[in-house]
Amino acid sequence: KKKLHSAGFEHEDKLLGGLLSSRFDQDSCLSRYESASFRKESPYKPSSDLISKLRRYEALHKRCGPYTESYNRTVAKLSSGEMIGEPSDCNYLIWVSFSGLGNRILTLGSAFVYALLTDRVLLVDRGADMDDLFCEPFPEVSWLLPLDFPIYDQFNKLNQKSPECFGNIVSNNSSSSSSSKSGFVYLHLVHDYDANDKLFFCDQDQSFLQKTPWLIMKSDNYFIPSLFLMPSFEQELLTLFPDQQTVFHFIGRYLFFPTNPIWGLITRYYKSYLSQSDEIIGIQVRVFDTRVGPFQYVLDQILACSFRNNILPEINPNESFATPTNSNSKAVVLTSLSSGYFENIRDMYWEHPTVTGEVIQVFQPSHEGYQQTEKKTHNRKAWAEMYLLSLTDKLITSSWSTFGYVAQSLGGLTPWILYKPENETTPNPACIRAMSIEPCFHAPPFFDCKKRSGIDTGDVVPHVRHCEDMSWGLKLV
Ligand code: GDP
Question: For the chain, which domains are there?
Fold first, then answer.
């Protein structure tokens, strides 16, 4: 199974089974054309309905995107305060940049699916560095919200208390008064959202949103699983994604291509350290602890998971010298904010032979110490590392981490998830094989929209289940 050459795999699927449009300039985004050769061919194929939906979306985006005639007209209406009830030929969903990079990637993907379902044009608040990290995903017309957008400076201030907030509007039952004044509705889908905000996931409360051309969304959650529970979206979602666990796999591969500088980080790393080995193992270590670490109980957990599931071989502690009997080599790419886990595992395989005779190389691209979401180079490395993890053959991830979810879904990898440790103790078992390649929705609603009462939303349809790593979360399987 040796790879053909150091750049990886050769197959005739550069446009990912028709997922990608052919109408792009290659040099502006090298990853769009080169990434296929860094992966095995995906076992998942996009449905023809998804492909045609994306081509129709691209046409809509071209007609309605920034500075088109329709865009200018709809923006003018926003400024003049005239709104709601007025039909508009183009309607928009503005995604506001918010939270860590893994969260941002998942929420932007969720926003795009919602835009597809509601025929809205997705526009992206570039924040500090969205334009630095991602290639333009749609041909010809940008997805970035122009900086001269009239209410750009209000985005920061929008919160649950804003009069334009969807939760406030539905609770006042004055479905148009406050929003008509401002000309937009603000969707607060952040983890701290309340019962009224959560009515976003009820069909009857969605209906008045259809009348407003401008929706502005802040979210830090992958909310697609709950869209599958809404009768108005369910049928179309099932048609677009006959295999429900592939939603983010396709949406992510369609939307998120690293820009050329980040593609450089990814390919140089891959070719230098990973491509020569027989198997590449990804280990994503995310410790939600304010102390620095490394922690012995986490190291023990990583090793217990790797050994138990035959992801990495155990060492032979008694034999200081052994002739390699096995020419197989494995490369481990470990990502973590701290370097301690990597150093320990690397030293272990240096100081001792493996019981199988395999050669284990261990690498870690960066050790940034702590989350620095405002810093450009920091986020570039974070994106490069998520992407590198997605290029592995087997992946171990950490509970609760959107960083890991992005890697697994993009890669089409069913990860082994390290359980969240409690009381500084190594969990037993250390990890669990995921049910699917999908991310987990961490803050789903538990509400039956028809009966107006509580319900276990993880027990309604077979393809929406509670997550392995968060008992109250929801994921597609
Ligand atoms: P989550 O908090 O694990 O769900 O993931 P997010 O990506 O939303 O936020 C964590 C942020 O911390 C990342 O975006 C990075 O800025 C940083 N971070 C966490 N783990 C790593 C890592 O392994 N490598 C790098 N380079 N950055 C990391």
Answer: 48-255 (no CATH), 260-439 (3.40.50.11350)
